[in-house]
């Protein structure tokens, strides 16, 4: 299937349509992966949330690059055990943001901000800058550490979101005492954002269909702004209808969740295994 | 501006996340107090709207494009507390479903984009649009923003006026830049607080001197104007295309500005302040305001009680003279004016305190009467 930016061009219409398409694509694939019968799919969402948070906190406090690589390997192993396609998983987690963060941190990793024994020079000493500009081991280690930490955090976040249905996730959050009002808002927002995105897609496609020749940038900005206003008007009138429909179906202010979550022996074993993994990683931090 | 996990120290992201809990609780309470469960669909759709706005690319010069956040637009339409909930929900969906923005950094992202941005933007909007053109959005009343709006009831006709549109545009610009500035400070304090044994930063390596200019340059020149244009133009469109969303016709009470309200009192007081230096022209001393030297001159001696108390109080402005302006006319006139202003303020404070006391005691009496 052709990507929207290939059909509609690389302008703002193409980019917006691409983002809307990604939204639907993401939902489609996440639902498919979450419906699988891999390791993480069969775990209680509450336990999954807690384990993922524990790994994130651990990663946040870890400075050792070797341990960070090991944590990344753990996430990849879990992805494999949960039958997630490894290439898209690794591409989504490691290809874009961690790489970008590494590149963005390079000026900070140079001798401009981070000192240390010179490893190699970018600008030799005495030419333009008196002491030259160089990279040290400490600087490169710093840039790598931040990129690895971001990648690891994303890898664990994606494990959670690719193996958990949205309804299970919010049910787990509710059982973890997140106030009902927020869970209800999240659930409704999640359902309706696809409808609104569809409306947005229609607006952008209609705009593309009736465009002939080049249009001034200012006119395009006016168009996007007025579509935002139009979207708000539609959303607002929709909310009245939804509330009416909810009342007719017996809504009395307290949402009912039909899903029952049960924590079994496998979940507790999962917790134990992850505690052991975290202990090993912590000890590894002292060894390496 | 979506801060990912791993780029900030957990020592900063976790406290901010915890600190956001009471903010969400207050926001939920404020919104719930007004209309109960009725707010649910509006807030949910507000969150979905916020999510969608962040996906819509806006063309920038040179063929590139950026996206708006829309938090100020939602704050103007639904109120700042509702915007806090709507944008927070949108950010949580982005973090949990799309991995856009961190999970531990969720609190920080919410502080920047769901609290600072809508509140600063809303404040700027109210400040510039003035009380007369403050929107009385039905949508806002519907979910709680009306608590604020109803205090400044005014004509809704002014909504959509060029002043309110410009106010919305400036509010969008300022709101986004306030959020960007806070994010820059959050980035910039990381190397100050967390450095490894080798001297390298443990998290974001850029200090405030780099993070603030880098963030603000991009936001003042590109993202801010885009946010401003989208906010202003969207408000203009809504006011034109859906005027039914706002209260039509005149609303009974119009709140007056402080100056207008107390005009009758302030003008005479101002004249009095201006006229106070006239006291310098008058000869002699006001009756009963004698100093020790004047009493000695009149009576031939100083009563012992008066002499013992005379030096007890040394005024800040002896003889109403400000020393830095010299002992001449300039010093005296300035001293007189300052004394008059300070005196009036003191008296006003006393009267205000008294009126408060009387009001409270009257309320207490009424309550007692009712219980009887």
TrEMBL record, chain A:
Annotated localization: Cell membrane
Entry-linked InterPro entries: ABC/ECF_trnsptr_transmembrane, ECF_CbiQ, ECF_transporter_component
Upper lineage: Bacteria, Bacillati, Bacillota, Clostridia, Peptostreptococcales
Domain of life assignment: Bacteria
GO cellular component, one term: ATP-binding cassette (ABC) transporter complex
Annotated TM spans: 49-80, 100-123, 143-161, 181-200, 268-287
A Gene Ontology BP annotation from the UniProt entry: cobalt ion transport
Keyword Transmembrane included in the entry's annotation: yes
Membrane association type: Multi-pass membrane protein
Keywords linked to the UniProt accession: Cell membrane, Membrane, Transmembrane, Transmembrane helix
Pfam families (UniProt xref): CbiQ
Full protein name: Cobalt/nickel transport system permease protein
Automatic annotation (TrEMBL), chain B:
A Gene Ontology cellular-component term: plasma membrane
Keyword Cell membrane: yes
All residue ranges annotated as the PDGLE domain in the record: 271-360
Swiss-Prot/TrEMBL keywords: Cell membrane, Membrane, Transmembrane, Transmembrane helix, Transport
Principal location listed in the UniProt entry: membrane
InterPro entries, sorted: CbiM/NikMN, PDGLE_dom
Membrane topology value: Multi-pass membrane protein
Gene Ontology biological process terms in this record: transition metal ion transport
Protein's cellular compartments: Cell membrane
Keyword flag Endoplasmic reticulum: no
Transmembrane stretches, start-end: 12-28, 40-60, 72-97, 103-125, 165-185, 216-239, 264-282, 333-358
NCBIfam families: PRK11909.1
Protein name per Swiss-Prot or TrEMBL: Cobalt/nickel transport system permease protein
Native species: Aminicella lysinilytica
